[in-house]
Amino acid sequence: MAQERKQTKEAAAAEQPREMEWDLKELMERLGGDEGFLRELLLMFPDDVRMNLEKSRKAIGTGDYEGLSRTAHTMKGMLRNLSMRAAETAAALEKASQENQQEDSRDLLEKLVKELDGILPEVEAQLAGVKP
Amino acid sequence: MRILVAEDDAISRALLERTLQRAGYEVISVENGTQAVAELIKQDAPRLALLDWIMPEMDGVEVCREIRCRKKQVYTYLILLSSRESKEDIVAGLESGADDYLTKPFDTDELKARLRTGHRILELEDHLVEARESMRFQATHDLLTSLWNRGVIVELMSNEIMRSRRERSCTAVMMCDIDHFKSVNDQHGHAVGDEVLREVARRLHNSVRSYDMVGRYGGEEFLVALNKCNPGSAVARAENLREKIAGLPIQTAKQPVSVTISIGLALSTEYTKCTIEEIMHHADMALYEAKAAGRNCVRVAQPAAGAKPVEEQPEKTQVLTP
Question: Tell me, what's the ipTM?
Fold first, then answer.
């Protein structure tokens, strides 16, 4: 399993020059090189994401675009704090839901879910102690 | 220094908390605006706050507005955290009462620098409040004895007499004068004289109830007003004050000095038609009579005739001879 994670990590690393999904270096600078704290934050990440995505789906289901934009805003801030590129999708989702663009909101939420699905294994790999 | 952090997302909150703790702050963190207001209006609340702009229940701008309209005694320095898209909201944020804003994700050095600005403002405010309080004290108190000064004691006593007339109660007005004070100064010097004044003031102040008033009326003259005083016990209370001074020599830096006071007493209930000045004049006349009667005694002003001697003459302590 560790092998599998490592491969994922390496695949992501290979893509880095094109699009850096997660700028771990920048994040570590923000954390002042505190690896223990990085671990604390990353341990919170899966639950934080799950909870916010759940809220977003519920909001879109009930047509609550104001609630959706608020949750997207929260996710945007959190992802930016973690130097994750998915923040920009969350930002687009916030904007689309503010403007009541239902179709765009739906598409962007799906895009965000996919991006976060992509980043979760990386977070787990990091937590498992596989150095980038 | 303590700081409040209001941020709804757990990860962003943890990041802020840790950054601030590293910078030496004691952090109190909450998840929404309602909790932020509850923390900020507490007694001894943190005076610095970092508020996320968009939060559930109450957003950062509403928190600023709420805190500012409460006009708290001490100033709270409020910084809003905004995302970089919402620049157009900055004006609205600052108009709601925020002192500054920061764009997320924040740069640690910038955050610290902005907080230092907050410190400077708060320190400036502390200095101003301190100066104002000190000036207020100086304007109302006698510098040497820290009692009310003449202007204030007369005004406070006037208000009290007006009130006692409405409520049909009695205010006892006492003019107290240190006997032969000039000779204290002549014999021991002015420094000792000042010590004597301070100690007499202290004893008078400590011998009345918290709602009575003591002020320095002139050089060695003190004005005491006993509020809601039972007329029948006024003389006994004046005697008590006299005894508090005469009963124990005053320890000065040089040597113990024995002093006494004479008291002229006027009861507001005896002078319902008189002005405040007239009542004080009557108390003053009674004080003269106490002096004429040999000092270290109490005389009560009589509306019609002169001052009445206190029935039971107290045993006099040794009067200081010049």
Answer: 0.79
